[in-house]
Amino acid sequence: MSLLNEILDYNEQFVEKGEYVKYKTDKFPEKRMVIISCMDTRLVELLPKSMNVKNGDVKILKTAGAIVSHPFGSVMRSILVAIYELKADEVLVIPHHDCGMASVDADSVVEKMVARDIPKNTIDTLGAAGIDIRTWLRGFDDVYESCKNSVEIIKSHPLIPKNIPVHGLIISPDTGKLEVVVDGYAAVEEK
Question: For the domain bounded by 31-102+142-191, which CATH number is listed?
């Protein structure tokens, strides 16, 4: 049985048994915040549990390394929609220790792409079009600096209201302990 069929079989039972009822909520986050977190599998349940967050409380965006790499990319768009359309009043960037993005070797990723039948000339064409794929794929060297950088991109965005606190925290993927790197309330009070 394929993984997709396994999922669909489970889903059919989930719906028939009414399991969805206990997850019903609306689209507005009860705790009025949006979290940008890493897509690491260890955080799927650990992050919300460690923060006392349940279904309906927050908006959670998952991206490799919890990195906001472009001020006009899809992550930033999602943050703006959460603020302006879904009533989020705070933003939390939460990467984690022992993140795979700290050790991503862009050259190795490119080699794996070629090994999986992505033509080398496709990668070269991207470069000719001004896209440095190795820079684009690069992770980070220091999770603290990466967290601060993502917070700064969000906080200094021209479309983010100055009264929105943008926090930076780092979570332990082993214990769920949160460490404050940037207290967004301090920046709002300075304004």
Answer: 3.40.1050.10
